[in-house]
Amino acid sequence: MAVITRYLEHATKGNGHAIDLTPDLARMLRETGLRHGACTVFVPGATGGLTTVEYEPGLLLDLQELWERLAPARATYHHDATWHDGNGHSHVRASLVGPSLTVPFVDGAFTLGTWQQVVFLDFDIRPRTRRLVLQFIGE
Amino acid sequence: MAVITRYLEHATKGNGHAIDLTPDLARMLRETGLRHGACTVFVPGATGGLTTVEYEPGLLLDLQELWERLAPARATYHHDATWHDGNGHSHVRASLVGPSLTVPFVDGAFTLGTWQQVVFLDFDIRPRTRRLVLQFIGE
Amino acid sequence: MAVITRYLEHATKGNGHAIDLTPDLARMLRETGLRHGACTVFVPGATGGLTTVEYEPGLLLDLQELWERLAPARATYHHDATWHDGNGHSHVRASLVGPSLTVPFVDGAFTLGTWQQVVFLDFDIRPRTRRLVLQFIGE
């Protein structure tokens, strides 16, 4: 049994930009040499989230409309009254989705469905490079 | 420390059908012989979710009404414009709930509350048999 | 590799009260002596949730308004018709947020962002003392 931690950087556009992490995850799992276990993907930061989705353009739009329906960008947020950084909606969306996702792997491959991809959602309002934590525990 | 992966199949009705996995989890944990650790339950597929709930008929209806309020089945989804499979709402509900749940166990029993059950939610729109991944890491 | 399980008690006010668990987590991680691994925080009970947030008063209000928008306290819930305990909204909010959060640690410190705190959300409707499970797996 081993714990192996890796980091992954992605330039994102923010505003709900969804980045498909599946190819990175597969490559990094291969590099660990582990065969059985789980990988926890974690966003260090309170304006990003992790989930899975069938990564196709229609659904990415549907997710954007979901976030807008649940926590509209133009609503008034107390966070903005305090900090005036205009990303109150980013924070509440991120807290709702959650910053952590654990995916099992078996025989060196993730147990994802064929049309299921792991996505990082950057809810913040400006482009930047975000660093994610990938932690593999297994054998 | 060991990693033990098991699979579980359930026939579901879809459309938000909530299946109580708690008895299966308890039985499978017993079969592993592990005493301390955590089990990650994972849905391979982008139209299912995992969470916990007090499994009683009233709350199962309340959850259905929640999904319908957050992502109505009759709204228009871009996913359906692309694929015409009519399950855009299934996908966004599943991404919102998330496909993964990790539950600790201690002395051979899960640390669930008395009125707290682990449920698989099948948001897709047709009955079928779904396979879930149960991965135990512990000693 | 070791599995170490600890418990944490907090008196909460209920009604969405958000408690910052970050200092407890840091202290308990230190006490385990583990350097690399992950901690799963789990709520035994179907009316609590776990996520991360920038823990400042404005955002705590924004989260309260989010829960109220998604699952209003004054709406009618089937759970209440059954049990008359008036906490139907607490249950559906908790199922939506989820009872489990896994956070990696590296070199004896959690991989949280600077303005990102782990919070326990007690959605139930009365003050009480809640017990949480913290399970560390690592080396």
From TrEMBL, chains A, B, C:
Origin: domain of life: Bacteria
Pfam families documented for this protein: YjbQ
InterPro entries xref list: UPF0047_YjbQ-like, YjbQ-like_sf
Family: Belongs to the UPF0047 family.
Name the UniProt record assigns to this protein: Secondary thiamine-phosphate synthase enzyme
Protein species of origin: Candidatus Ozemobacter sibiricus
Lineage: Bacteria, Candidatus Ozemobacteria, Candidatus Ozemobacterales, Candidatus Ozemobacteraceae, Candidatus Ozemobacter
